[in-house]
Amino acid sequence: xxxxxxxxxxxxxxxxxxxxxxxxxxxxxxxxxxxxxxxxxxxxxxxxxxxxxxxxxxxxxxxxxxxxxxxxxxxxxxxxxxxxxxxxxxxxxxxxxxxxxxxxxxxxxxxxxxxxxxxxxxxxxxxxxxxxxxxxxxxxxxxxxxxxxxxxxxxxxxxxxxxxxxxxxxxxxxxxxxxxxxxxxxxxxxxxxxxxxxxxxxxxxxxxxxxxxxxxxxxxxxxxxxxxxxxxxxxxxxxxxxxxxxxxxxxxxxxxxxxxxxxxxxxxxxxxxxxxxxxxxxxxxxxxxxxxxxxxxxxxxxxxxxxxxxxxxxxxxxxxxxxxxxxxxxxxxxxxxxxxxxxxxxxxxxxxxxxxxxx
Length: 359
Description:
It is built from one helix and 27 strands. The protein has one domain (39-215, 233-357). The protein has one helix spanning 2-7; strands at 15-22, 38-40, 44-53, 56-63, 68-77, 90-96, 99-104, 109-112, 126-128, 143-148, 161-165, 169-173, 184-188, 200-202, 207-211, 217-221, 231-234, 240-244, 249-261, 267-279, 285-288, 294-298, 304-307, 318-322, 327-331, 351-352, 356-358. It starts with a helix and ends with a strand. By secondary structure, the protein is mostly beta strands. Residues 1-19 and 25-37 have low confidence and may be disordered.
């Protein structure tokens, strides 16, 4: 684990020289787009955990508005930040709204808020879901990502969890639905352009949406009545589909990666170029270098946007990238591409979105 931490020390996004300890998380009053009396926490990235014995570690995060690591007194299981610790018996497979999804060997999926620095330190929430069901000619061992329609899977009856697998299967579940026992609704996607796509939930359309390979189609599924045949929208380019809830805009992000080697000679997939497009309701994708004051966060968690004015200190008009091989910022307006690459591997590449805290 110490090697894992040292490998991250060269990143521009976070600076180990500014590591500080904290027993609590300070909150910033912002959210100028909300009419409710809510406080919001700044976005943050899960960096890892410092081992403290008994397979536990102190959670380390980096706040987007300070660009510094903070080691919290919150204890988390090390297997959640490093899948290799328990020999793959429990794997983290994605995150959404600050909830991390883990998968056990028996196919049981669990939602938990352990890696959310704003959740309870002493009473973490665990929401077990029923064992996954594999459709004929599909697989459920390799998962592309996880998405949720709301941030309250424990008590929101309408909250739907979507799990996208590599291949044609897409599965939905309501953890707090009215039925006595939650169950999976499984669909088999016929169009192969969606087989390797990542799913996201659009609050604007109230649909789960996926960009097709090559960026020519966007498929949409109704969370209340999913079917094998999605609504299709034709577009020109796409890799990541990102919705800005504060402004109601939808962006398509084209990320170009190439095989490269890090400083230790280990093969990684390095981002060489990135382009951002604004998508209108007719499916027209227009290249832009200006997202206004928005900051975009793309990781192995569900992507999101935050106004930079809400949390002074963030890099405005930037895309924060974080995956298993690299971590850094890209200035959308920049004429030259600049992306900091980590030594890798990064074991828990999740951005945590702002959390609403009631007064």
